[in-house]
Design brief:
The complex is a heterodimer of chains A (548) and B (460).
Chain A (H helix, E strand, L loop, with lengths): L8 H9 L4 H8 L2 E3 L2 E5 L2 E4 L19 H10 L5 E6 L2 H6 L23 E2 L4 H6 L2 H15 L3 E6 L1 H6 L3 H12 L2 E5 L9 H15 L12 E8 L5 H12 L1 E8 L4 H5 L6 E4 L2 H15 L3 E3 L5 H15 L2 H29 L3 E5 L4 H11 L3 E6 L5 H5 L11 H4 L19 H9 L19 E3 L4 H11 L3 E4 L1 H9 L4 E3 L11 H16 L2 H5 L3 H6 L1 H9 L1
Parallel strand pairs in A: 4-5, 4-6, 6-7, 8-9, 8-10, 10-11, 12-13, 12-15, 13-14, 15-16
Antiparallel strand pairs in A: 1-14, 2-3
Chain B lengths: L16 E2 L6 H9 L5 E6 L2 H15 L6 E2 L4 H6 L2 H15 L3 E6 L1 H6 L3 H10 L8 E5 L8 H16 L10 E4 L5 H13 L4 E3 L25 H5 L6 E5 L5 H11 L3 E4 L5 H15 L5 H21 L3 E5 L2 H13 L3 E7 L5 H10 L7 E4 L5 H10 L4 E4 L3 H8 L3 E3 L17 H23 L10
Parallel strand pairs in B: 2-3, 2-4, 4-5, 6-7, 6-8, 8-9, 10-11, 10-13, 11-12, 13-14
Helix pairs in contact in B: 1-2, 1-7, 4-6, 7-10, 12-17, 13-14
Classes of the chains: A alpha/beta (548), B alpha/beta (460).
Chain lengths: 548, 460
C-alpha cells in the first residue's frame, strides 16, 4: 500500500472487534488504540492509556507463550555453562531445545557448553501421583556425575507447582551436597499471563543466587553490563565488537553468549545498559538498589540508535578520550552503512510495515524501517506492559492485578558493605544539566506517528483483518504467524528468530537488515502470484501491480 | 565439538533424560486433529503448550498451523478450567466458525482433573455449540507415553466420536495411515485408487500442510477428512490400520463398536512392508495388482540391485517413532545394510519385539532401546564406542553428524532445518526409491569428500 492511502483508523478499530462476542469486544477495545499524542511537548510526550499485560481471552488465538518459555527459553537458555534441567513431562524441555538461536562462543574447545543439550526429568504418571522430588534429586545427581558442571538450574513446568514439589528445597540440598550452585525457578506455565512473568521469575533468581557471588572486577577503564540482549543471530557479538573498538568493556551480557561466571560479578561494573526493557529491567533496578550501579536504556537496533546509544554510554563516563574514540568508531562504520542505506532507501521508500512481536522489538525495529524510508502503520507487543508502550512515567499508576501479584517482588536494600553509588550528587547534576536520563524508557507510543494503530496481544482474527484492510508491504511477527501472512502474498519477517539470518544489531546489523528487507519486499515471487491468464482477465489489477 | 560433553563412558541413568527421542502427547493430538477438514484443534492448558506445538509444527512444515488454547492462569489452575474452556468454545465458534473443535488435554488440565466430557456437555446445554457443529476431545496427559501416543489417542477419539451411530454400509474401506507426511497420504491415496478401492482415510493432512500460495489465505485449508466422511467409517467393510503405535487403537474402536473388522499392518515404507500392504489391498478387492504398481515394484528392485554395492554392510543408527523405525529397519535390512542402533523415546515393549521380527536375526549385533532414558545421548554414546556409517532420523541428528562426521539422512518428525520434505513421499515403492536415493547421495557425498585424490572417482 502507499503511505498516503486514506484509511479511517477509528473505523478500522471498530472493524477489528465487530465480530467478537460483546465481552471480548469490550476488553479488546481497551487493547487497540489509534495513537494520539495528548501532550506533544518535545520533552514530555503523553499518550493514551493502553490495557496491557492482562489475561489473554481463551480461544482468541494468541501469539503468546508461557512463563516457562520466558524463564528457561529466553533468559536462562543462552547461558552455556549451566546444566538447565526441565522438571516436568518431556515436552517443555524438548520444545525449548535449541530453537531460539542464541549463539554462543565458548572460549576454548574444552570450555563448557551445555546449550546443545536438552535435560529433563521426563516426569511420568507415578511422579504426578507420588511426587517428583525424588526423581529430581536423582536427575541432578546423574547430571553432576556425568558432567561436573559449576551450576545446575531447575525449571518447573505446570504439574510441578500443582503437585507441590519443593524444587527450591531439593536444589538447596543438592547444591550443598555437591558443592555447586544449584537453584530452581518456579516458572510453571500458568504463572502470570505471558512469557513476561517468566522473565521476572528468572531475574529474581539470578539476582538472589548468582549476581554478587564474585567481587573481583574485570579489568577495563569503562565497564558496563549489557542487559536484555540475547544474541539471536549473533547480535551481541556485533555490539561487543563495536564497544570494544571504542574502548568499552562488557562485564556481563544478560544473557546472550553468557556464562554464570560473568553473571556472578555483574555488580562490579559501572553502568547497566538495558536493551530489552521488558525482560530485564527488574535486574537493573535491583542491582542499582543493592550495589549502586545506575542504569540507562540503550538501543542497538538501527544505525542512528546505535550511534546514539554509544554516545550515551560515553557521556556517562565523562571522558574526552572515550568520546573521541566513540565518534571515530561511528564515523568509520557509518561510511558503509550510508552507502547501503541510500541504495536500499530508493527501493523501499514509501512502503509500509507492521510489527507485532515481543516486548521491545516491535519498538526498536521501527528505527531500521524508518532509516530506509518505510513507515510503521501499526505495531504492538506480544507480552509487554503499559510502561513499554507509554513510558516509565506511568509506572506508579499501573494497577497490580491478581496475575501479577502471584509473581514474587523482591525487597532489595543497599548492601551494607558493597553498596557504592557510581554517580555522586555532583555528577548527577552535571549529567542532568545536559539532559541525561537515567532509568528512563519513554516507550513505543511516543515514537510512533499520530494515527498509527497500536494493538496489544494481537489475535489471529485482528491480524487477518489488518492485512486485508492495509495490505502492508511487510509484516513482522514470529514463526506461528509467518506463513499465515505469506499465504496472503505479503512477506513476513520473523523478529524472534530473524528467519535464521542476522545479526541485525549495530552498524553491520543495520546493513544486513536493510538488505534483507529490500530482498523481501522486492522479491520476484510476490509479483508472480497472479498467473498471466488471470492478469489478462482483470486489466485493472495488472495496472495496480505495475504501479506498486 | 557441539556435543563436547558426550563421552563413550556409559553410566546407568534412571531419572535424567538427555536429548530426548520423543516429545509429549498434545502435539501429536494437535497434528492428528488438523487432519480433519474445517477443524480447530484446541489445547486445554496454559497457552505455552499451544504456542510450542504450533511453533514446532510450523517449523516442520513452513505452512500455517492454527490452534487455540484455554490460556490457563493460576486461578484457573486452582479452580478448574471449565470457565476457560466454555469461553474458548463460545469464542471459537463466534470468531472462527470451525466445523469441528477437537480438544486435547495437557499435563496441567489432567493433573487438576478437569472433566472435559462434562464441560463439553455443559457447552451443549448452554447453547454454545451451534447446530450441526462437532466438539469432541481426547485425553492426552503429557506425562504418559509420547507424541505418538497423543496422536493415537486423538485418532481413537475421532473414530469413537464420529461413529456414535452406525452408518449404512458404504462398501468403502477405512485406512488409518498413521503419523506420516502429506505427500505420503497423497501417495497412499493414489495406490489405493489404483487398486480400485474406495477408501476413507483419516486423519488426512494432505492439502493441509502443503497449501498453495495464491495470495488469498484460506483459514481452513482445502484438505482434511470431512466430518461427513468420518461419520461413515462405521459403515465401512473393513479397516486397514498402518502402524501399531499410531493407528491400531482407532481401528479397534470401530471393530468393538460396530464390528468393522480390521487388519493392522506396518507403515508401507520399504519393499517388504509395501508388499504386505499391496497384498492386503488385493485381498480386499479380489482384483489383480495393477500394472502401475507392478512397474513401480520392479523399478525399486532394479535400483536396489544397482545400489547394492554401496549399501551392503553399512552400519546405521536410527531414532524416532516406533512405526517408522520398524518399517525403516526392515527396509535397511532388505538392502543388506546393518541397522545397529535403534532408539525411540516412545515407551512400549512391543516395539522391541516388532524390531526383532523385522530383522529376523539378520543383524545380531543390534542394540534397541525404548521408553525411559532411551534418548539420543545414549545413542550417541553407543556411536562413540563403535561408530556407524549413516544416521537416519529427525533434525536433531545434525549435531551428532557434524561432531562425528557421519552422513545423515533426515527422516521423521521434526525436520526443522530443511524445506520441502512434505512434498516427497517415502511410502510405497516410489517412496522406497526416494529413500534409497537420499541414502546413497549421503553416503557417496561423504565418499567423495573423504577419498584420497588418486581414488576420487568420476563414475560411481
Amino acid at each position: 500500500m502507499s503511505v498516503n492511502k486514506k484509511i479511517d483508523k477509528a473505523a478500522v478499530r471498530e472493524e477489528l472487534i465487530e465480530n467478537y462476542p460483546r465481552k471480548v469486544a469490550r476488553k479488546r477495545a481497551k487493547q487497540i488504540l489509534v495513537n494520539e499524542k495528548i501532550d506533544d511537548d518535545e520533552e514530555n510526550i503523553e499518550v493514551k492509556e493502553i490495557y496491557a499485560n492482562v489475561r489473554t481471552t481463551p480461544g482468541i488465538i494468541t501469539q503468546r507463550g508461557c512463563s516457562y518459555a520466558g524463564c528457561k527459553g529466553v533468559v536462562l537458555g543462552p547461558t552455556r555453562d549451566i546444566v538447565n534441567i526441565t522438571h516436568g513431562p518431556i515436552g517443555c524441555g524438548f520444545y525449548s531445545w535449541l530453537t531460539r538461536r542464541n549463539q554462543t562462543r565458548p572460549e576454548s574447545d574444552t570450555d563448557e557448553n551445555f546449550m546443545t543439550y536438552c535435560f529433563s526429568t521426563d516426569m511420568q504418571d507415578q511422579e504426578i501421583i507420588f511426587g517428583g522430588e525424588k526423581k529430581l534429586r536423582q536427575a541432578i545427581q546423574e547430571a553432576y556425575d556425568l558432567f561436573h558442571p559449576k551450576s545446575i538450574a531447575v525449571f518447573s513446568t505446570c504439574p510441578v507447582g500443582l503437585i507441590g514439589d519443593d524444587v527450591h528445597a531439593v536444589c538447596r540440598e543438592m547444591g550443598e551436597t555437591l558443592g555447586i550452585t544449584c537453584f530452581g525457578f518456579s516458572c510453571e506455565g500458568y504463572k502470570g499471563v505471558s512469557q513476561s512473568a517468566g522473565h521476572h521469575i528468572a531475574n529474581n533468581q539470578l539476582f538472589k543466587h548468582v549476581i554478587g557471588k564474585n567481587d573481583e572486577p574485570d579489568e577495563g577503564k569503562f565497564r558496563i553490563n549489557l542487559l536484555g540482549e540475547y544474541n539471536i543471530g549473533g547480535d551481541a557479538f556485533v555490539i561487543d565488537e563495536i564497544l570494544k573498538k571504542a574502548g568499552i568493556t562488557i562485564t556481563s551480557t544478560m544473557s546472550g553468549n553468557s556464562t554464570i561466571k560473568a553473571f556472578e560479578k555483574a555488580h562490579t561494573t559501572d553502568l547497566n545498559c538495558v536493551m530489552c526493557h521488558r525482560s530485564i529491567n527488574y535486574v537493573a533496578d535491583m542491582i542499582e538498589k543493592k550495589y549502586g550501579v545506575p542504569w540507562i536504556k540503550v538501543n542497538f537496533i538501527g544505525a542512528k540508535a546505535t550511534a546514539k546509544s554509544m554516545r550515551k554510554i560515553a557521556e556517562y563516563f565523562e571522558d574526552e578520550e572515550l568520546m573521541k574514540q566513540v565518534d571515530e568508531v561511528i564515523r568509520e562504520e557509518m561510511v558503509e552503512v550510508e552507502k547501503v542505506r541510500k541504495e536500499v532507501y530508493e527501493k523501499c521508500k514509501g512502503k509500509t510495515a507492521m510489527l507485532f512481536v515481543g516486548g521491545s522489538r516491535a519498538h526498536h525495529y521501527q528505527e531500521l524501517f524508518s532509516e530506509i524510508g518505510m513507515k510503521t502503520v501499526a505495531a504492538g507487543y506480544e507480552f509487554a506492559h503499559r510502561d513499554d508502550y507509554e513510558g516509565r512515567r506511568v509506572l506508579p499508576s499501573i494497577k497490580i492485578d491478581a496475575d501479577s501479584r502471584n509473581i514474587e517482588e523482591l525487597t532489595v536494600t543497599a548492601d551494607p558493605e558493597r553498596y557504592a553509588p557510581r554517580v555522586d550528587e555532583e555528577k548527577a547534576k552535571r549529567l542532568s544539566a545536559k539532559g541525561y536520563d537515567f532509568k528512563d524508557y519513554e516507550g513505543m507510543m511516543p515514537d510512533m506517528d499520530k494515527d498509527a494503530l497500536v494493538i496489544d496481544d494481537i489475535s489471529q482474527h485482528e491480524t487477518e483483518k489488518l492485512l486485508e484492510i492495509y495490505k502492508p508491504d511487510i509484516f513482522c511477527a514470529g514463526i506461528k504467524e509467518k506463513y499465515i501472512v505469506q499465504k496472503s502474498g505479503i512477506p513476513c519477517k520473523q523478529l524472534h528468530s530473524y528467519d535464521y539470518g542476522g545479526p541485525y544489531a549495530g552498524f553491520k546489523g543495520a546493513i544486513n537488515f536493510y538488505r534483507e528487507i529490500d530482498r523481501m519486499v522486492n522479491a520476484t515471487v510476490w509479483k508472480l502470484i497472479q498467473a498471466p491468464w488471470e492478469k489478462a482477465a482483470s486489466p485493472t489489477l495488472e495496472a495496480s501491480f505495475i504501479e506498486g | 565439538m557441539l556435543l563436547r560433553h558426550t563421552t563413550s563412558e556409559i553410566k546407568e541413568r534412571g531419572a535424567l533424560t538427555i536429548n530426548p527421542a520423543k516429545t509429549c502427547q498434545p502435539i501429536g493430538a494437535m497434528y492428528a486433529a488438523l487432519g480433519i477438514h474445517g477443524c480447530m484443534p484446541h489445547s486445554h492448558g496454559s497457552q505455552g503448550c499451544c504456542a510450542y506445538h504450533r511453533s514446532t509444527l510450523t517449523r516442520h512444515y513452513k505452512d500455517p498451523v492454527l490452534a487455540a488454547t484455554s490460556s490457563f492462569t493460576e486461578g484457573a489452575s486452582v479452580f478448574g478450567g471449565q470457565a476457560n474452556l466454555l469461553a474458548a468454545i463460545d469464542n471459537l465458534f463466534t470468531i472462527y466458525d470451525p466445523e469441528v473443535i477437537a480438544i486435547h488435554t495437557t499435563c496441567l488440565s489432567e493433573t487438576i482433573g478437569d472433566d472435559v466430557g462434562q464441560i463439553i456437555g455443559k457447552a451443549k446445554e448452554t447453547g454454545k455449540i451451534p447446530a450441526g457443529k462437532d466438539v469432541f476431545y481426547a485425553s492426552t496427559p503429557s506425562y504418559v507415553g509420547s507424541h505418538v501416543v497423543g496422536f493415537s489417542n486423538m485418532v481413537k477419539s475421532m473414530a469413537d466420536y464420529f461413529s456414535a451411530e452406525k452408518s449404512p454400509k458404504t462398501g468403502s474401506v477405512n485406512i488409518i495411515p498413521g503419523w506420516i507426511e502429506p505427500a505420503d497420504i497423497r501417495e497412499l491415496k493414489r495406490i489405493v485408487a489404483s487398486a480400485g478401492l474406495d477408501a476413507i482415510m483419516f486423519p488426512d493432512t494432505s492439502g493441509v500442510f502443503d497449501g498453495p500460495l495464491t495470495g488469498k489465505y484460506a483459514f481452513y485449508p482445502g484438505g482434511g477428512v470431512s466430518a461427513e466422511q468420518l461419520r461413515k467409517t462405521s459403515g465401512s467393510e473393513a479397516t486397514l490400520s498402518l502402524g501399531t503405535a499410531a493407528s491400531v487403537a482407532a481401528a479397534k474402536v470401530l471393530d468393538n463398536k460396530w464390528q468393522v473388522p480390521y487388519e493392522n499392518l506396518d507403515l508401507p515404507i520399504g519393499i517388504s512392508a509395501m508388499d504386505r500392504f499391496v497384498t492386503a489391498l488385493q485381498q480386499s478387492t479380489g482384483k489383480r495388482v495393477s500394472e502401475d504398481i507392478l512397474l513401480e515394484r520392479g523399478q525399486l528392485l532394479d535400483l536396489m540391485s544397482d545400489m547394492h554395492q554401496y549399501f551392503y554392510g553399512k552400519r546405521v543408527a536410527l531414532w524416532g517413532d516406533p512405526d517408522q523405525l520398524v518399517a525403516l529397519t526392515e527396509f535397511l535390512a532388505d538392502l543388506d545394510m546393518r541397522p545397529v542402533y535403534i532408539v525411540t523415546g516412545t515407551p512400549g515393549r512391543a516395539f522391541e519385539k516388532r524390531i526383532e521380527k523385522a530383522l529376523n536375526g539378520r543383524v545380531p549385533e543390534v542394540k534397541v532401546k525404548q521408553g525411559a532414558n532411551a534418548d539420543m545421548f545414549l545413542m550417541h554414546q553407543w556411536i562413540k564406542n563403535e561408530s556407524v556409517d549413516l544416521l537416519l532420523g529427525n533434525t536433531y541428528g545434525k549435531y551428532i553428524s557434524r561432531d562425528e562426521n557421519i552422513p545423515f539422512v533426515r527422516h521423521g518428525f521434526p525436520i526443522l532445518d530443511r524445506i520441502g520434505h512434505q512434498y516427497f513421499s517415502t511410502v510405497g515403492y516410489k517412496g522406497g526409491v526416494r529413500l534409497m536415493e537420499q541414502i546413497l547421495t549421503a553416503l557417496l557425498d561423504q565418499k567423495d569428500r573423504l577419498s584420497p585424490e588418486e581414488s576420487f572417482e568420476l563414475v560411481l
